[in-house]
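Cross-posted from the bioinformatics board.
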Amino acid sequence: MAIRKFQKASVFFMRLLFFGLTVLLSQVATADAATAAKVTAKRIVTENGMTVILQEAHSLPVVNVQMIIKAGAVLDTEEKAGLAHLTASLLEEGTATRSSTQIADAVDFIGAELSAGGGDDYASASLRVLKKDLAAGLELLSDILIHPSFPEPELQRKRQEILGQLIAEKDEPGVVADKAFNQIVFGAHPYHRPEEGTELTLPSITRDDVSLFYDQYYRPNNTIMTIVGDITESEAASLIKTYFGSWPQKPVPTATVPSAAGLEKPIVKLIDKDLTQANIILGHLGIDRKNPDYYAVTVMNYILGGGGFASRLMTNLRDNQGLAYSINSHFQAGAFPGSFSVSLQTRNAAAQEAVDGVLAEIRKIRTAPVTDREIEETKAYLIGSFPLRMDTSARIANLLAQIEYYNLGLDYAERYPKLIGAVTKTDIQRVAQKYLDPDHLALVVVARQGEAKIRQN
Amino acid sequence: MPILFYLLFASLLFLPVSPALARTIQAQTLDNGLTVILVEEHKAPVVTIQVWYRAGSRNEVTGRTGLAHLNEHMMFKGTPRYGKGEFSRLVAKVGGTENAFTGKDYTAYFENLSADQVALALNLESDRMTNLLLDAKEFQLEREVVKEERRLRTDDDPQSLVIEYLYAAAFLIHPYHAPIIGWMTDLNSLERNDVTAFYKRFYSPNNAILVIAGDIDPKKLLPKILQTFGKVPKGFPVPPFHITEPEQNGERRFVIKKEAQLPFVFAGYPVPNFSHPDNYALGVLANILFSGKSSRLYRSLVYEKKLALDVGGEYPNLSANPDLFYVYGVPQPGQSADELEKFMYAEIERMKTEPVADRELQKAKNQIEAGFIMGQDSNFYQAMQIGMAEAVGAGYSYQETYLENIKKVTKEDLMRAAGTYLIENHRTVGVLIPQPHKDKD
């Protein structure tokens, strides 16, 4: 992962922090579910096996392309952790006919945004370009995906950059806490390690490793492409043929990924750092995205700590006790079971009090049914705000890619109100009991430990 | 009711190639002084409602910093009509999102909703414009929340500390001296009465701008605005602001020693804002130096010399008073901060002495234009640009003519602007010197 690109001098202080203005800008605008949540996308599979989802949107002369390549960090071996991420990061750094700087010059000259990067489950690449420069943009996107040359000096440079970022991240207490937490919770599963690799694994990755990984996994038949914007179906078909038709397909190796086992006993990890605040994360293994309980868990977690100002954790620990500025709970549900976690920051001396407060809320939602008002308002929000995920073309492109990756069906937006609407109070208590386990938690606290005084048992 | 009526088709003004960009903007002032700006955009049945107050940390005084931001937090703590937590609850219930943010020159509140729920946001926002409870117990709790926010975002982030001190060093008498979130000792000593006084002074229709963008029909919407915001009584006139920072005659430098892994260099130069014709050249200059992987700083310091892990900068044109053009860098592990700083300045010096190539100038203008068009994808972003321009005194017409003015910038303008403003005698520099971890047990 890259260093977060903030506007360095904070322009705003918000009631609730968003990570950077770009997130803020994309978090916004919602619509009435009944009228707005319509996907009119078309799904095509090309002759060379690439799945393409197209949604026309002609209100602006802009086209967004989102690519998902099933070449994520879960495919890495333990010894070469970081290979998938490094491969994705090098796509923009040179092709058979263009140097890294030529690519950057060409992208910036047309005012486009082109990026490629790794992820746990899949790598992605995206393009945002003015309609008038669409052909030039697609040419660049296809070039970095189909003809990357992985020049040795670029590999060396990128590796140094990633190693440097790993060092810089040690100054971010939240990142330090998350990494330690994943290490404990995921056991043998690859989610336990950072996708960008470590100081130990990165030096061993060679150009041959990168080339082989690319050759195995960067194939059209292993790729989802979504296009949203000012483009017609026939234009898209012809452009895809021109720029991606020559990408040769090839069967992709099936990977065996070690699975995670739950914790047998609670684990507490304390990391001493000269901070005024304790950064706290606690939780355990959660669910994957295909779990049939995903929607019940979504509603339950919204009430517990996912629902911003409406959640119990926010109401009780922030609004009623002034213990934290930011507090939330989260189920990370990907291709494999991710984590359930609660994160917060509080002054060192209040750390144990805050942990106890979180535990009390987790126990409470397991033992007592949620109220009618809570479940009704949660459903109303989740259903009513669904179009918030579809308010800009870039967000639609991203959502469509997710829909295809998880096989949710192009009618997902229309089915979503029913999926959420069907969740009952009984479901919520059942999934709380099944997926929350306050007796087998991993707890990580990054703080001045002398002041935080966390109980070790 | 005095009505100023504008109809602007943005595409006709400066983007003849993209007729799809037509948007209709209507601006007027109500009898109570509220500025109302409506932007019709029918691509989706959604609306953003934003209320901008011309009150930010700039309007605070010594010993009372953090008031504007704390007031923002208190705006969610209830009125006689809608109690604590009700505001957020009612918006979430209809699938809406809401939040607020405080800057140096303004505080803004927003709701993003389905177009048929616009009346709810009008009711809630007009109610809290003058009816806030400002309960004493809630004040005490929220002060603790804000202190946690300060610890999170400033005290435990060494780079943020450098930036905070840099503004304090660069602005001696102008209130841009103080951080938006406030100094910790001020947060400890603020009283409820301070917030009440700030709220009464600055929260009034004559000191606010209402921007609504999205799927609206102004003819139907206007009566609703008059029934809600139109009934809020006019407040006291806000006295004019008169503080001007004196000219700086020599570089100012400071260091901060804190536990950290890597050094950090942050330098700022006072520059004019939107009101000066040079603001367009400064915008293009910032683009050439900082924007994208082909930018001067990234190409030279990250890519070629491998001195920096991260570099960047910005020119804040939309500030009520002249702010800082800033540049920063984090050295690669093993590289020195001094060396990095030297080369950062070398790139700035080049802007004064060598004319940029035609293609590089065109690239910068293309990037700015594409960014502007892509920004129209979001109602929220459009409304925010308009609200901010109005709040700082530029007026939304500044946005409407921005691209035209950018296109007129020449390479001579760039050299002149760099030579006038980005000079050593006006510079303030802060450097973080990392310290090793010490056990405090």
